[in-house]
Design goal:
The protein has 82 residues and is of the alpha+beta class. 12% of the residues lie in helices and 28% in strands. The chain starts with a strand and ends in a 5-residue tail after the last strand. This is Ferredoxin.
């Protein structure tokens, strides 16, 4: 398992993440979104969204994070996982 955290306050809408991981999307507000976030829930007060995944796309998420020029994306693995 791993977590992808997206800081929309840091996001500039450059969307380098979209071409590296298809779970990232362009939202109506011009910022990045990520599959699995609560689409109808309130925006987090700090603009940070974290989604947990349990699939084989860790490398895609890491590439998206590395491609983000404003470091708005981070990927962390669950304890005990590699």
């Amino acid at each position: 398992m791993y977590r992808v955290t997206l800081d929309r306050e840091a996001c500039d809408g450059i969307f380098a993440c979209l071409v590296r991981d298809d779970r990232f999307t362009e939202r109506a507000d011009g910022l990045a979104g990520i599959e699995g976030e609560a689409a109808d829930g309130p925006e987090p007060a700090d603009g940070t969204v974290t989604v947990t995944f349990d699939d084989d796309r860790l490398a895609d998420a890491e590439q998206a994070a590395a491609a983000c020029p404003v470091d708005a994306i981070s990927v962390t693995t669950e304890e005990g996982e590699s």
